[in-house]
Structure formats: C-alpha cells, structure tokens
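Give me the fold.
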Amino acid sequence: MADATIDNTKERMNKTIAVLKSELGGLRAGRANPQLLERIMVDYYGTPTPIPQLGNISTPEPRMLVIAVWDQKAIPAIEKAIQKSDLGINPSNDGKVIRLLFPELNEERRKDLVKVVHKKGEECKVAIRSIRRDVMEQIKKDCKSSTITEDDQKYLEEKIQKLTDDMIKEIETILTAKEKEILAV
C-alpha cells in the first residue's frame, strides 16, 4: 500500500513536469524548433489538424523551418493558420514547401520570454504542491480510519515530502536551462 501510494504520487508529479517541458518546448528561443508548430491547427477539409500531420518539418538552418507538405492544396490553409497563430512569423512558399524564417530575438523579447518561463514554472510548482497536499490528506484519512498505522503515516509523509522537494529541484533545473537558452545571443 505504501509503495503504491508513493509510485502513484511520483507518476502524477512526473506527468505535471512533462506538461511543463512540452509547454516550454513551444516557447520560441531564437532557434527554429518543430515543436512550435505542433499546437497550430489547420482547417484541413473541415477537420482541425496539427501541422505535423500534414507534412514533414525540417530545420535546414538554426533559424528556419521548412514544411514539406504532402497535399499541395493544403499550403494556403497552413499559411493562414501560421499567420493567425501567436508565432508572429510570415510564411513563404514556392508551391512545394513552406519556409518560416525566425528573426533574432531582441533583448526586451528575451526578458518577456524569461518571465513567461518563470510563470509556467511557478504554475508547475503549485500543481506539484497541490498533488502533495491531496496525498497527505488521503494519508491522514487512512490513518484515522485505521487503514494504515501511525508509523506508516509518518513514513509516507516523509517520503512524499522528499519526492516533492526532488520534483521542485527538477523544475528549477529545467527553468534554469530554458532561461540560459533564451538569454543566449
């Protein structure tokens, strides 16, 4: 029972960190990253479809993405979706591929991105602490209903707190790495 509680909590916390990593992957840090296009939906024959399902995305240069679209008729719809998105980039095409050229980030934009990174990190920490609180409450309920002993309660609470501390440290590491990536000129 104790190990199951710890494993379940660890799994929930890891999922929270995975969400943070995917959100941070979508932040533009001066380099072209195919992940930026995953959340952009294209109206493809009436169905909202993510860009990666419509063609191959490659990065021939650090600040350029090239989308080799499988269905040439979808090019205008993809361009329209990219222009409507929050990327702030104008796509260009030659009839076969779409090119996205990412401009260098200025200092002000970099600082804004760092603020966004810290905000997302703080939201993730709050979610981790919320998971800890829920589990701690469940442990106390289990002890009151005599499902577990007081020794088990103390052991579980210590383990959950250590797990929480480790996850917070991991989040800090992720945030520091992303901040360095954004501030690198």
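The first strand starts at residue 41 and ends at 44.
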